[in-house]
Specification:
By secondary structure, the chain is an alpha/beta fold. The protein is 37% helix and 17% strand. The protein is globular, with a radius of gyration of 22 Å.
Length: 411
């Protein structure tokens, strides 16, 4: 199969936006399929992607299309000149664009569409896969489908679009929101398939489409996953038997301030109430700015991200922490799946939802806010010894398995 993949920040570009399809492309390529990737050019002063080696394969051909989004908005410079340029460009974008102005693929069609058309004409492409955010690239992919109707179009939503908390969506006035609604409607009416990582989102989008669109795509949940290659014989540091170590790895979600405050209250309580000599330690690896109250907490340590070395750190932990805001309580994120193969109990700080329900019903951890009456069993190891489901079947959640699902969807 020949696939044209449109992914704005595919490796070697840095950022989590390239991870999902970098991993899927890796396994599709290993199965003999050819992937022609169109991505944005490297951003200025960028560090290499964590997943760059995953996409080094003869069957993966990568093309870069110049960015057209103004750098004065995407990477504003400090100082009064930078501020002047930022606000001037912001007003220009507001005058020119009908929807949100905070979508970095705005204008990208000028450079990426010619590349995509050339690939479609020369490479006998069977399917186009386009993944958002950013969202305007999905519109450009839908335009390609209209031009090349014989090619199947799979549109992948990594997050919600119209209900997003970022990309400027939450503050849009009705006229600009209607412009975004028209875009999503056009995408759905051109697409053959719409995939999302979350069951609730797939259902929401399908309902939305049936109410508004004249032509219906098929809606499928293509869940996140872990790459088994990342967990081959992780080197585990020698365990300090008198320390119970909880590790958090990754970004801090927008809107999760309330949950981090709840984490602070919970952590202070369990540290104070521990009933044996075990010392409880929380290690947080993130590039996000943490609240000062958490940074200054006793027994909580903040570290910079360490790339794939984080798997070794997590393999040495006693438990793994997940903190989710209200809008992600039903989302088993990439972080969730990358925790699974480590076979560590999960400590969830989140509103009740699909994630807390899944974790507790499968005995994979505890809901710190609602179900843990006493921290004793969790933090003295009794939960791991007596309750934790050490044989939970994880083989169905590998990147290789998800790539097989993609093949089936596009066949």
């Amino acid at each position: 199969m020949n696939i044209l993949l449109i992914n704005y920040d595919f490796p070697p570009n840095p950022g989590i936006g390239g991870r999902r399809w970098a991993k899927l492309a890796k396994y599709l390529a290993q199965k003999g399929h050819r992937i022609h990737v169109v991505k944005a050019e490297l951003p200025p002063s960028s560090s290499p992607s964590t997943w760059q080696q995953d996409v080094s394969h003869p069957n993966i051909q990568i093309y870069s299309a110049a960015r057209k989004y103004p750098q004065s908005l995407s990477h504003p410079k400090e100082g009064w000149i930078g501020k002047i340029k930022f606000h001037a460009q912001k007003h220009m974008m507001q005058w020119r664009e009908k929807g949100t102005i905070y979508d970095q693929s705005i204008g990208w069609q000028k450079t990426m569409l010619p590349i995509c058309r050339n690939i479609l004409r020369k490479e006998n492409i069977d399917a186009i896969v386009a993944t958002g955010a950013p969202w305007n690239l999905l519109v450009y992919a839908a335009q390609l489908k209209a031009e090349f109707p014989h090619v199947k179009l799979l549109v992948d939503f990594r997050d919600p679009w119209l209900t997003a908390k970022n990309y400027g969506m939450a503050a849009l006035k009705s006229a600009r929101m209607n412009a975004e609604i028209r875009k999503q409607k056009f995408v759905f009416e051109q697409a053959d398939l719409v995939t999302t990582p979350y069951q609730y989102l797939s259902k929401e989008l399908e309902t939305w489409s049936r109410e508004r669109c004249s032509k219906q795509p098929r809606f499928v949940t293509l869940a996140h996953f872990f790459d088994a290659d990342d967990f081959d014989n992780p080197v585990v540091s020698e365990k300090q038997t008198d320390i119970f170590r909880v590790v958090y790895a990754g970004d801090v979600y927008i809107g999760s301030e309330a949950q981090w405050k709840q984490f602070q209250t919970f952590a202070e309580s369990v540290i104070q109430k521990r009933t044996n000599q075990t010392h409880i330690r929380f290690d947080i690896y993130t590039h996000a700015k943490m609240p000062a109250s958490i940074v200054n907490m006793k027994d909580v340590f903040i570290h910079a991200p360490i790339g794939k070395e984080i798997f070794r750190v997590m393999a040495s932990a006693d438990a793994l922490l997940i903190v989710l805001p209200e809008n992600k309580k039903n989302e088993r994120t990439t972080k969730f799946f990358e925790y699974l193969p480590l076979r560590k109990p999960l400590l969830i700080v989140a509103p009740k939802g699909e994630v807390t329900s899944f974790v507790e019903s499968n005995q994979l951890g505890v809901d710190a806010l609602h179900s843990l009456d006493t921290p004793v069993s969790f933090f003295n190891g009794d939960f791991y010894q007596n309750t934790f489901n050490k044989t939970f079947p994880i083989h169905a959640h590998t990147a290789d398995s998800r790539a097989n699902e993609v093949i089936e969807l596009l066949s």
